[in-house]
From TrEMBL:
Organism placement in taxonomy: Bacteria, Pseudomonadati, Pseudomonadota, Alphaproteobacteria, Hyphomicrobiales
Family assignment from sequence similarity: Belongs to the IF-3 family.
A GO molecular-function descriptor: translation initiation factor activity
Cited Pfam families: IF3_C, IF3_N
Record's keyword terms, sorted: Initiation factor, Protein biosynthesis
UniProt protein name: Translation initiation factor IF-3
One of the GO biological process terms: ribosome disassembly
Record-linked PANTHER family: TRANSLATION INITIATION FACTOR IF-3, TRANSLATION INITIATION FACTOR IF-3, MITOCHONDRIAL
Signal peptide (UniProt feature, chain positions): none
Protein biosynthesis as UniProt keyword: yes
Length: 143
């Protein structure tokens, strides 16, 4: 329609039995359309619901280990970790120390660095291994 005064645009919308909706208020001059406001709101609501449905919620899965873990147990944990990465989830690796194990924290660090090396192809380190109290933690995210 081109540039039309507001009162004329309102009259045109009223004659059509529709609403005058401001589409781009920041442009010069502001852009308006004559349409059904209820239908516009409904369409926007459906579009937002569809976007929410499609988004992936990233979960943080936790794998707990001990510093003196056996090789087979380690392999089982790594298999589970790979499955989590395929699903697109982050993995928090927790290493718990008990009693005298606290004297050998280097074993725990060595184990977490091994996990880091084994998952290097499919995951990146989000939080480096660090000691918090009696446990050492590291967070990995899929690439």
């Amino acid at each position: 329609m081109g540039s039309v005064p507001i009162d004329q645009a309102l009259r045109m919308a009223e004659e059509a039995g529709l609403d005058l909706v401001e589409i781009a208020p920041n442009s010069e001059p502001p852009v308006c359309k004559i349409l059904d406001l209820g239908k516009l709101k409904y369409a926007n609501q459906k579009k937002a619901a569809e976007a929410r449905k499609k988004q992936k919620i990233v979960e943080i899965k936790e794998i707990k280990m001990r510093p003196n873990i056996d090789t087979h147990d380690y392999e089982v944990k790594m298999k589970a970790m790979n499955r989590f990465f395929e699903d697109g989830d982050k993995v928090k690796v927790t290493l718990k120390f008990r009693g005298r194990e606290m004297a050998h924290q280097e074993l725990g660090m060595k184990l977490l660095l091994q996990v880091k090396d084994d998952t290097q192809a499919i995951a990146k380190v989000e939080a480096e291994p660090k000691l918090e109290g009696r446990q050492m933690m590291m967070v990995l995210a899929p690439k």
